[in-house]
Amino acid sequence: MSVAIVTDSASQMPKGLAERLGVIVVPITITIDGVDHAEGVDLEADAFYARYVEGETDVSTSAPTPGRFVMAYEQAIADGATAIVSVHVGADHSATVDAAAVAARLVPVPVEIVDTGLASFGVSLAVWAAADARAGDGDLVACAAAARRILPSIGSVFVLDAGVLPRRSGRFDGLELDAPAPGVPVYFYGGGEFAEVGVAADELDAARLMAERIAASGPSRIASGLAGPATAAVTAALERAIADLGCEVVGYRVGPSVAAHTGPRTAGAFFVGSPVSPGPG
User: Fold this and answer.
1) Residues 6+ apart with CB under 8 A from 119
2) The domain spanning residue 39 has which CATH number?
3) What is the residue-level pLDDT of the chain in tens, covering all 281 positions?
4) Are 156 and 195 in contact (CB under 8 A)?
5) Measured between alpha carbons, how far is 150 from 53 in angstroms, rounded to an integer?
6) Rounded Cα gap, residues 15 and 24, in angstroms
7) Are residues 229 and 242 located together in one domain of the fold?
8) pTM assigned to the model
């Protein structure tokens, strides 16, 4: 059995990593001021940040159509796939899983759909687990099981944009985004819950707090996300702080399908570690 692996661009998987793992990425649609764009096809991260102006730019996202998924699955079949694992952004965040399920019924090979319940690079970490299983000669069931098995061990730490997008998205319920507070709050997400790690004195101190929370998990794999230009300093500081943890660290861009909900000044990292809990490690 030749197993293909498919994901969506909300996974934020860099092209180089997708090529390395042999993963097909289906683009999310980004609508900017009424004009549709395909993420990673005709709209990259830098172009999005250059166009987005707080309070002026109307931006939204929508799931790929079933037809997009049919095209991706047919590409995989043409390349020799006899089964497909399709790993996606959580159904609570997007209709992507539903679109993939419709497409799965329209192709002549078995398709196993994995709803990660996650967004951003957390999805890529699950995809990566499926790819590792495939590299070990795993079949369709084994690859899908590997993606699902890693989900409880995926966590993220981040500082959140203070702009309107996180509030409007409704994706950060439980965080007091409107409460004035001195310093920079650092947040954790894992196990389906948000928690505050602490309040940093400034963004560079926030990198220290994020690194400490990651280190406490005993990480085996880390991905640090660079959003807009304003996040470069905190991302660089975070990468320096986690460089000596002894595990693979991958950088990725926070692309438009995520930034449209988190804002251009959000920064942080995803990691695979010991089973995560919402509180500080």
Assistant:
1) 10, 89, 90, 93, 94, 171, 258
2) 3.40.50.10170
3) 699 999 999 999 999 999 999 999 999 999 999 999 999 999 999 999 999 988 889 999 999 999 999 999 999 999 999 999 999 999 888 999 999 999 999 999 999 999 999 999 999 999 999 999 999 999 999 999 999 999 999 999 998 876 555 555 556 665 665 555 678 889 899 988 888 899 999 988 999 999 999 999 999 999 999 998 989 999 999 999 999 898 989 999 999 999 988 888 889 999 999 887 765 54
4) no
5) 37
6) 10
7) yes
8) 0.93
Query: Which residues does 71 contact at the CB level (< 8 Å), separation at least 6?
Result: none
User: Is 9 in the same domain as 111?
Assistant: yes
Residue with the two structure tokens 């795993």: 138
Q: In what order do the strands lie in the sheet with 267-272?
A: 193-200, 184-190, 154-159, 267-272, 221-226, 248-253
251: which 2 tokens? 């950088």
Read off the CATH number of the domain in which 162 is found: 3.30.1180.10
Q: By C-alpha distance, which of 125, 146, 124 is closest to 135?
A: 146
Residue 169 sits in which domain range? 153-272
DSSP 27: P
Q: Report yes or no on 278 lying in a domain.
A: no
